[in-house]
Here is the input.
Amino acid sequence: FKDGSYQLEDRSVKVGESYYYSVLSVDTLKNKSGKTNLTLHETQQAGTELLDEIVVVPNPLIVKSGWEGAGNVDMRIGFLHLPKVCTIRIYSYSGQLVNTIEHNTGLYSTAWYQVTRNNQLPAPGLYFYVVDTPKGERKHGKFVVIR
Here is the structure.
């Protein structure tokens, strides 16, 4: 407890897995409240200092159904091993810019939920990504979307 708020550090979690946490209040008579503020937390490591090999998962991404929403993990492509600050640009096979992601969270990864900069679902096929850092470093690669 510090400055009017509680902080919990759970050292039993595994990096890359998601956990639900909630608040349960107990008074001096040991009366318990209902669980409140149920929240999903995805664990991550801190971003790297240098731009190294970027990993895209899953690759290929195989979409499992015809109806997908932006919060559906079936639609999520993860970019892993990112530096703390970088820009990710995603291009179609024909070289058209599909989306730009400004990654500045300081974390190890970020997700793309397959929505283009025109707010459309991209077509199945081969995509290329380019990751640039503020220092001028650059890495690139490719991934596949199968519907």
